[in-house]
Specification:
single chain, 383 residues, alpha/beta, 8-stranded parallel β-barrel, two-stranded antiparallel ribbon, 11 strands, 37% helix
Length: 383
């Protein structure tokens, strides 16, 4: 249990010497999206390389009427650096037990859902079923519960995943450096952590208790993963929880400062929006329309031209199909956000509502129809 102060670390939580958290908070606290003008937006579009001032303009109110021009620029940059390729992957949920209470999440402690955890045999079965679809990259997920999904359990799942996939990533609770080292030793290459919101006051209100309530420990998770030897790290805010412009700015700056400090690491961003959950179908992404979500996507691309950007299955198929032509370079396919659904009858409930449930073959057909090349893996693992 964590006290009222979201900045107080628990005894087992490792602290590292880093100023990135304070730097990001400083930028978002001083950001006023209403102060930027059309001239600022056009200056960003003309720039050879976007700086932080340009990013703030691209996320501002003034940029909204110029989304078409921004999207054209985003598309050109994407094709320049990524060609016509779109990387494919799927998530695999290992456990939906959770010891944190986060009001927007279906897995939150106290929510009355069917709880389940895959055993080793079931992990093999799920991975076999996914691998048969042709996918070569998997993202392993759990709830925020070390008691139910230990570091050793996740490391073993990574080891098993290496039998079936060329690329293995995780999106689990944040860990210390030595714990990430164990995952890396067992075949994990990528760590994704969603900060959810970068506003400390809002963060405190929606993370009621549990390890996830400790905001700076979560924030520094990507940095600890890199120090443990991970190949790449992913970032994201759950847009709609708070002011989406500030959260989008903070996400981009978080990735930007990490990339500047650890230039050897691969950087990826996601743009998920808040979705309904079991026992609360009223929550949604507030004022984050599809147009504004596209604004965030394109601003990310102009600011971080080399970064991989994932478009979530939280979004409807038509929007995703458009996003992959304008700036997104990665998408999920054949998605299940419950426990055990790939290989048999689902045994544990979902984390959120999926909007795009298309299978791998259908996604590949869509990509080819748009003259895009599906990429199952960009590397060969040497253990």
């Amino acid at each position: 249990m964590v006290g009222d102060d979201i900045f107080t670390f628990q005894p087992h939580m490792q602290q590292i010497d880093s100023d990135i958290f304070a730097n990001v908070l400083s930028h978002i606290q001083s950001y006023d999206p209403a102060q930027y003008t059309t001239q600022d937006v056009f200056e960003a579009l003309r720039a050879r390389q976007c700086n932080i001032h340009h990013l703030k303009a691209l996320l501002s109110y003034a940029a909204e009427p110029h989304l078409e021009a921004i999207a054209r620029h985003s598309r050109a940059i994407t094709r320049r650096y990524f060609g016509n390729t779109i990387a494919l992957f799927t998530p695999l949920y290992l456990s939906n037990f959770c010891e944190s209470k986060c009001v927007y999440c279906g897995f939150q402690k106290g929510n009355k859902i069917a709880r389940a955890k895959l055993d080793e045999k079931e992990i093999h079965a799920e991975m076999q079923a996914i691998a048969q679809s042709g996918l070569q990259e998997v993202l392993l997920l759990t709830g925020e519960g070390r008691e139910y999904a230990s570091v050793e359990y996740i490391a073993n799942a990574c080891r098993i995943a290496r039998e079936y996939f060329k690329v293995v990533g995780v999106e689990v609770y944040p860990m210390n450096i030595d714990e990430y080292e164990l995952l890396h030793k067992n075949g994990c290459e990528f760590v994704t952590i969603f900060q959810e919101t970068y506003n400390p006051k809002r963060y405190a209100r929606i993370h009621i208790f549990g390890e996830k309530r400790v905001m700076p420990y979560r924030f520094c998770g990507q940095e600890r993963a890199i120090l443990a030897g991970m190949r790449g790290v992913g970032f994201g805010a759950l847009l709609g929880i708070d002011d989406f412009r500030q959260d989008a700015l903070a996400t981009a700056l978080h990735a930007y400062f990490i990339q500047n400090h650890y230039s050897h690491s691969e950087i990826s961003l996601s743009i998920p929006r808040l979705r309904p959950i079991i026992n609360n179908n009223r929550i949604g992404p507030k004022d984050v329309s599809e147009a504004r979500l596209l604004q965030v996507l394109c601003a990310y691309r102009l600011f971080l031209p080399f970064a991989s950007i994932t478009i979530s299955s939280r979004e409807r198929s038509g929007f995703r199909d458009n996003a992959i032509t304008l700036g997104a370079t990665k998408m999920s396919a054949g998605v299940s956000v419950g426990i055990g659904e790939h290989s048999s009858t689902k045994k544990g409930d979902d984390q959120f509502e999926v909007s795009d449930s298309r299978g791998v073959e259908e996604i590949i057909a869509i990509l080819k129809a748009k003259n895009l090349q599906p990429v199952m893996s960009d590397s060969v693992y040497v253990g």
